[in-house]
């Protein structure tokens, strides 16, 4: 079919240049990864249709001459047929393809974190000042025995009978979410590695293999085994603090991944251990895991490979029957279960899946924690909550709902300049994050952004301490799973029941 | 109106309080006059909505039997619970708990006690082989949660709890504790802040031979409760003191932790302290926190924990509630205020303020032992402070 030169899909944004201020330095042309700007002989010209409002150009315009505006041209308003639907119909009728998006869903689903309020002390118990008293955030991830086994030495002093199962020690209950080399740039991974090491936490390299330059950060890295098995070998499994089997991702439960061949250059080819130029396909299922007993075999195969010295994590997407699924995963031998809520991010996913599949992390987490307790196996595995943790408040609430720690992906990218434009899948990221174009990736200085990531987690940890102190507890384990310190607001009885919390005032 | 159970809509009770404890390490028994005097001095720490005592060594003639102290709202509740007792226990003796009606305590439940042991051919034996202690725990939880208007407030051997709504000195008169003798006494004066007092909610809380009096509020109540529920404890009373009693039951009786170590779970050393320990000890204390993090008691508390072999006094990790200890000869005294100790022991050998999170453990000794007090229980630093 011949392609019409006209498109119904109008520019979403207008890149407006104040030519009186513009000094024609052309930095905008250089900075924009999308090719929005060009030089028209005497002035900068903007092709609005290419603008995604990623914010790079106006951040770096020395004269403040650029404004990015929402295109004021109206589409006829219709409560039912909204822009979102109409534009997708136009786009898809032009391409005939599946609509693809990056990041988490932008749709306005109810955000349960925003309907949960925290408790504080008044009179009968004193709040604690974290600036003057110790306040503990240290967290250990991994299987814990249900009871301690003691021996007594010749002096009659108790000593541990058995060594503890392997644990990941986190100085603060945060970690960076899995993002592969390929989906993001090596510099972005390096920034997280530097921050993780300085903070005493961990990052997760996703399913893209471990780049040589990240090997020295092993103690602060979780290596992943996903359905594509990219870069997996015995050394790889032993190079991190833990191994994670990725079953699903919140943004695209039930969907695999696809890194197109044109992005597989020499470096990624070596890291993923696949030929350059070939598509990197992660199948939807692991083709050796069609049921829970198969998962058990893979978990124990990995434990054998790492000599039972590293915890094995299993990452699953929050879907409707998540409580029973996680219970099965724990009984299959997982030491850590990473639950990714439906609003979690992605490098690329079919829009229909990203926007419609899965359940919110708040509810999934509350249900899983409760189920594991009812079965008496909560100690068998630690829980990591993820899926758009936007603030320390979200993190505190997730921990009170039962998480041992939270993982942040999008928030980490925002720290590196991301403006959540949702175009990660195009590989044009002007901030050098979700791109492999060398002229773009080299602008992301790992040390500079590593420091900003350090600052962010540090700030959130301080806020967490303030809230713990206000609640009158001086250790994070006294908040973990303590739903009694949470109250719901503007929630129905069913929602409160699903979350396992009371309404405000009760 | 009498309320044995917490029928209020709140999840857990909040209270401030006063407490006292007296132990004679040679197990010489004394009557309840001293403890009454000591706790009466702390009158202003309570508000008349709850007082109580635990005494050890009070039933020597029935020392092999479980002594159940039960409160009933009415005769129907009593008949229902007694049906359960008859089916499952051999009841050697039962009687009303002796009381003296005073004008201060003018409204009270039926108070009855039973000396009994579980039947060897009880019905549940068809399904499992619970030990006697476990069966007693199960029975106490069953009565307290499922039998309306009935509440077991004491279930140990050769010990008993005496408690109710009122100031402790009036409760002492009500139960005529000057006629009761024991080698160890604990007492509690209650200041509940968000509910009216109810008889079941007064301290001490007991389970088997454990007894707890507690001043404070457990800010970690929510997770402590959920943790205990994993081990099938039923928190019928919804008070944080109940949580402490059950955690100790779990740690000491079921998981076999030494008493000292159990205290290191309740008031765990900070990681900054653990990090400075010798490797073997560091590994042990780290494991203890990893495994029992959900049993950490957070928030302000001072507790006195009684068990047949002794008494333990413990403060929270940053000492947010008062606790003072003193010794004189074979006696050790613990109280919220030093004046309480001096009220009954005008010139103690030593008086000191236990450090935050550091348990004071006073164990009874065989009567022929020469040492009057196990001075090892007082840390070097504390002794320096004393001298």
Keywords:
heterodimer, A: 506 residues, alpha/beta, Alpha-Beta Plaits, TIM Barrel, 8-stranded parallel β-sheet, 3-stranded mixed β-sheet, 15 helices, B: 387 residues, alpha+beta, Glutamine Phosphoribosylpyrophosphate, subunit 1, domain 1, 7-stranded antiparallel β-sheet, 5-stranded antiparallel β-sheet, 18 strands, globular
Structure characterization notes:
The complex is a heterodimer of chains A (506) and B (387). In chain A, helix 4 (186-199) packs across helix 14 and helix 8 (322-331) crosses helix 10. In chain A, the strands form eight sheets. An eight-stranded parallel beta sheet of chain A has the order 11-21-20-18-17-14-13-12. In chain A, strands 6-22-23 form a three-stranded mixed beta sheet, with helices on one face. The longest helix of chain A is centred in the last third of the chain and has 25 residues, at 446-470. Chain A is globular, with a radius of gyration of 24 Å. Helices cover 28% and strands 16% of the residues of chain A. Chain A has two domains: 13-97, Alpha-Beta Plaits, CATH 3.30.70; 139-503, TIM Barrel (Alpha-Beta Barrel). Chain A is built from 15 helices and 23 strands. Chain A is of the alpha/beta class and 506 residues long. The mean pLDDT of chain A is 94. In chain A, 51% of the residues are buried. Chain B has a single domain (15-64, 87-105, 159-386), classed as Glutamine Phosphoribosylpyrophosphate, subunit 1, domain 1. Helix content of chain B is 28%, strand content 27%. Chain B is built from eleven helices and 18 strands. In chain B, helix 1 packs antiparallel against helix 10 and helix 5 crosses helix 6 (240-254).
Q: What's the structural blueprint in terms of helices and strands?
A:
The complex is a heterodimer of chains A (506) and B (387).
Chain A: E1 13-17, H1 27-31, E2 37-39, E3 44-46, H2 56-60, E4 66-70, H3 83-95, E5 100-101, E6 116-118, E7 139-141, E8 150-152, E9 158-160, E10 168-170, E11 174-176, H4 186-199, E12 203-204, E13 221-225, H5 234-237, E14 242-246, E15 257-259, H6 266-272, E16 280-282, H7 292-305, E17 312-317, H8 322-331, E18 336-340, E19 349-350, H9 351-356, H10 361-374, E20 382-386, H11 392-400, E21 405-408, H12 410-415, H13 438-441, H14 446-470, E22 486-488, H15 493-499, E23 502-503
Parallel strand pairs in A: 11-21, 12-13, 13-14, 14-17, 17-18, 18-20, 20-21, 22-23
Antiparallel strand pairs in A: 1-4, 2-3, 5-19, 6-22, 7-10, 8-9, 15-16
Helix pairs in contact in A: 4-14, 8-10, 11-14
Chain B: E1 15-24, E2 30-31, H1 33-40, E3 51-56, E4 66-72, H2 75-88, E5 89-96, E6 110-118, H3 132-146, E7 150-154, E8 159-164, H4 168-174, E9 181-182, E10 184-192, E11 205-207, E12 210-216, H5 221-230, H6 240-254, H7 259-266, H8 271-274, H9 279-292, E13 301-307, E14 310-315, E15 324-328, E16 331-335, H10 338-344, E17 350-352, E18 360-363, H11 380-386
Antiparallel strand pairs in B: 1-10, 1-16, 2-9, 3-8, 3-10, 4-6, 4-7, 5-6, 11-12, 12-13, 13-14, 14-18, 15-16, 15-17
């Amino acid at each position: 079919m011949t392609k019409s030169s006209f498109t119904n899909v109008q520019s979403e944004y207008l890149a407006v240049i104040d030519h009186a201020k513009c000094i024609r330095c052309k930095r905008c042309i250089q900075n924009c990864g999308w090719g929005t700007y060009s030089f028209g002989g005497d002035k900068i010209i903007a092709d609005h249709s290419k603008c995604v409002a990623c914010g790079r150009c106006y951040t770096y315009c020395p004269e403040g001459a650029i404004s990015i505006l929402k295109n004021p041209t109206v589409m006829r308003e219709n409560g039912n047929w909204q822009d979102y639907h109409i534009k997708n119909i136009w786009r898809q009728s032009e391409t005939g393809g599946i609509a693809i998006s990056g990041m988490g869903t932008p749709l306005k689903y109810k955000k349960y974190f925003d309907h949960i309020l925290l408790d504080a002390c008044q009179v009968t118990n004193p709040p604690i000042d974290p600036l003057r008293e110790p306040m503990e955030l240290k967290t250990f991830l991994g299987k814990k025995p249900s009871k301690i086994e003691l021996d007594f030495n010749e002096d009659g002093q108790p000593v541990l009978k058995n060594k503890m199962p392997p644990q990941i020690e986190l100085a603060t209950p945060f970690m960076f979410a899995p993002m592969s080399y390929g989906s993001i740039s090596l510099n972005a991974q390096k920034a997280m590695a530097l921050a993780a090491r300085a903070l005493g936490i961990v990052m997760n390299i996703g399913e893209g293999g471990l780049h040589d330059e990240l090997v020295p950060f092993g103690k602060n890295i979780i290596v992943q085994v996903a359905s594509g098995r990219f870069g997996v070998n015995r050394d790889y499994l032993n190079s991190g603090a833990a191994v994670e089997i990725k079953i699903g991702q919140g943004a695209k439960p039930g969907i695999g991944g696809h890194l197109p061949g044109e992005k597989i250059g020499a470096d990624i080819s070596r890291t993923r251990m696949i030929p350059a130029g070939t598509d990197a396909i992660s199948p939807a299922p692991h083709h050796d895991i069609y049921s829970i007993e198969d998962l058990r075999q893979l978990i124990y195969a990995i434990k054998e490979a790492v000599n039972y010295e590293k915890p094995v994590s299993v990452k699953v997407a929050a879907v409707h029957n998540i409580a029973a699924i996680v219970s099965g995963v724990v009984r299959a031998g997982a030491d850590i279960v990473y639950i990714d809520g439906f609003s979690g991010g992605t490098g690329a996913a079919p829009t229909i899946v990203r926007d419609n599949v899965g359940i919110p992390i708040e509810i999934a987490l509350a249900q899983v924690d409760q189920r594991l307790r009812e079965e008496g196996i909560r100690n068998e595995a630690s829980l990591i909550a993820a899926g758009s943790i936007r603030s320390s408040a979200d993190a505190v609430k997730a921990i009170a709902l039962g998480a041992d720690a939270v993982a942040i992906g999008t928030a980490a990218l925002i720290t590196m300049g991301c403006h959540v434009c949702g175009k990660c899948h195009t590989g044009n990221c002007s901030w050098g994050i979700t791109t492999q174009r060398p002229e773009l990736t080299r602008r992301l200085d790992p040390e500079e952004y590593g420091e900003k990531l350090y600052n962010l987690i540090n700030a959130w940890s301080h806020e967490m301490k303030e809230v713990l102190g206000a609640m009158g507890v001086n250790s994070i384990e006294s908040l973990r799973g303590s739903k009694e310190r949470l109250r719901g607001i503007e929630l129905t009885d069913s929602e409160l029941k699903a979350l396992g919390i009371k309404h405000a005032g009760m | 109106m009498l309320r044995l159970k917490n029928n209020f809509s709140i999840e857990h009770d909040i209270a401030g309080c006063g407490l006292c404890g007296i132990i004679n390490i040679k197990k010489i028994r004394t009557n309840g006059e001293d403890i009454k005097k000591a706790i009466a001095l702390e009158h202003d720490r309570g508000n008349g909505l709850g007082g109580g005592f635990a005494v050890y060594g009070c039933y020597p003639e029935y020392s092999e039997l479980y002594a159940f102290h039960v409160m009933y709202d009415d005769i129907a509740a009593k008949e229902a619970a007694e049906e359960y007792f008859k089916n499952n226990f051999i009841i050697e003796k039962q009687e009303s708990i002796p009381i003296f009606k005073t004008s201060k305590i003018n409204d009270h439940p039926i108070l009855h006690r039973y000396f009994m042991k579980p039947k060897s051919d009880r019905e549940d034996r068809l399904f499992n082989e619970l030990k006697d202690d476990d069966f007693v725990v199960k029975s106490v939880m069953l009565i307290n949660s499922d039998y309306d208007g009935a509440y077991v407030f004491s279930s140990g051997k050769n010990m008993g709890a005496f408690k109710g709504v009122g100031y402790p000195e009036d409760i002492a008169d009500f139960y005529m504790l000057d006629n009761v003798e024991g080698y160890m006494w604990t007492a509690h004066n209650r200041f509940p802040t968000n509910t009216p007092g109810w008889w079941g909610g007064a301290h001490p809380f007991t389970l088997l031979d454990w007894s707890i009096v507690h001043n404070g509020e457990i800010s970690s109540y929510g997770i402590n409760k959920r943790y205990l529920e994993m081990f099938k404890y039923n928190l019928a009373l919804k008070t944080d003191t109940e949580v402490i009693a059950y955690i100790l039951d779990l740690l000491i009786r079921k998981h076999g932790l030494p008493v000292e170590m159990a205290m290191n779970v309740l008031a765990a050393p900070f990681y900054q302290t653990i990090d400075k320990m010798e490797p073997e000890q560091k590994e042990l204390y780290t494991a203890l926190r990893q495994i029992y993090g959900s049993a950490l008691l957070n928030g302000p508390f001072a507790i006195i924990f009684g068990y047949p072999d002794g008494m333990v006094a413990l403060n929270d990790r940053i000492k947010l509630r008062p606790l003072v200890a003193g010794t004189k000869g074979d006696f050790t005294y613990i109280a919220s205020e030093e004046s309480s100790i001096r009220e009954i022991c005008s010139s103690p050998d030593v008086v000191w303020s236990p450090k935050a999170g550091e348990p004071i453990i006073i164990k009874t000794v065989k009567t022929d032992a020469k040492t009057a007090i196990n001075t090892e229980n007082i840390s070097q630093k504390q002794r320096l402070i004393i001298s």
